[in-house]
Design goal:
Elements lengths: L24 H15 L3 H4 L5 H14 L50 H5 L3 H16 L27 H34 L1 H4 L1
Length: 206
């Protein structure tokens, strides 16, 4: 019982505290997926060397990994007389831009946990569609008005078109339109919140 552990890992400080209730779906989502992802996002933040020998050891590891193959596409395979997959001109050992060769990853290539779409079963397109549906619902608009792909025809504007406004004017118009959309959404949310308070009786009490 008095034995000391051979290795100790200390995680960095968490700057965004979030309350979690055990046994809830939210706890499963945060701990198993979100928290696991960010605890392993950067190795150097959790395993910073505390002495010169530890720093020298990490530097030697990074130097060795710089010339070791990290994937089937890595040009470091050329050191062993092996042609990397999808080889192209200009490849040379030690010139791979993969994450595994960087100090903050220490030989770990890519992500340490599944990306969000793997465990949420939703792609970015699905999330955009959900967001769009929510905005339309908040604004009280129908989602069936512009679902016809033949409703609009998009063409590139040729250079020098006299109907094309200057770039500055187009940027200002885009910013103004975005601000108008946000104001409409904020007003719709405020109306919904007021309705929720009235329905629960809290609005009358206030």
């Amino acid at each position: 019982e008095d034995d000391e552990p051979l290795h100790v890992l200390r995680f960095g400080e968490q700057v965004k505290p979030i309350g979690v209730l055990g046994g809830t779906d939210r706890a499963d989502h945060l701990v198993k997926h979100y928290l696991t992802k960010y605890l392993t996002k950067s190795i150097t933040e959790t395993c910073a060397p505390e002495s010169q020998p530890q720093k020298d050891h990490a530097d030697r590891m990074v130097a060795a990994l710089h010339y070791e193959p990290c994937s089937e596409f890595c040009p470091n395979w050329l050191r062993y007389g092996v042609q990397p997959k999808n080889a192209r001109p200009g490849q040379a050992p030690g010139r791979c831009a993969g994450k595994a060769h960087k100090a903050e990853h220490l030989g770990i290539r890519g992500r340490r946990v599944l990306v969000s779409r793997k465990w949420s079963t939703k792609t970015l397109t699905d999330h955009r569609a959900d967001r769009r549906a929510w905005v339309l619902e908040m604004l009280g608009l129908s989602a069936t008005e512009d679902t016809d792909p033949n409703r609009y025809v998009w063409r590139k504007v040729p250079p020098g078109d006299p109907d094309l406004p200057p770039l500055g004017q187009r940027l200002l118009s885009a910013i103004a339109e975005r601000q108008r959309q946000r104001e409409l959404l904020a007003e719709a949310q405020a109306r919904q919140n007021a309705g929720d308070l009235s329905a629960t009786g809290e609005g009358a009490a206030a």
